[in-house]
Amino acid sequence: MKRTVLVFAAAALVLAGCANMNNQQRGTMIGAAAGAAGAALLGKGSVWGVLAGAAIGGTAGNLIGKHMDEQAKELEQAVPTAEVNRVEEGINMTFQSGLMFPLNSSEISPDYKDDLAAAATVFNKYEDTYILVEGHTDDTGTDEINVPLSERRAKAVSAFLVSQGVDPARLDEKWYGSTQPKYPNDSSENRSKNRRVELAIYADEDMVAQAKSGTL
Known about the structure:
The protein is of the alpha+beta class.
């Protein structure tokens, strides 16, 4: 808790110092403050931490952000059942496990394969990104059950994307069981939201190089 307070205090000081900056400088500083806060709150390796760490800021970061805006819009249209958010210079995409998988299973539901295939089509259009796939559960059950289940689900999503033509070199998987809830595990509704697969979509080296050279 103390660390969280300190992070937000530091972020507030950064924002206060933005008053005399131009828009470009202000955007870069705000992004850095938000990234620090997100990484501190959600921990190393989480989707938000990864996206904060991938941000480069400045003019190049703005160009990457505009590029990601286009991809995010296409993902929203392609997969209306998923939650799509722009975070820093990347995209956070969240699938509800209740829609994607049968209960206590890592086999993708036949009815949801069309949604994942639509996402893969967008990923294949924008080839200059990396995709981190994370599996999460609620706090029902034990770690001995939840951690392997979140692992199998993350790997199942990656495998399906590869089957749809996504380059496996772009993909990585992580799994956390119930250790990274988005919501308090205090109701059936919140637990259902915590049972999820999240994606972090961020620029690869080629996109970063193009952005820095102004050719993106």
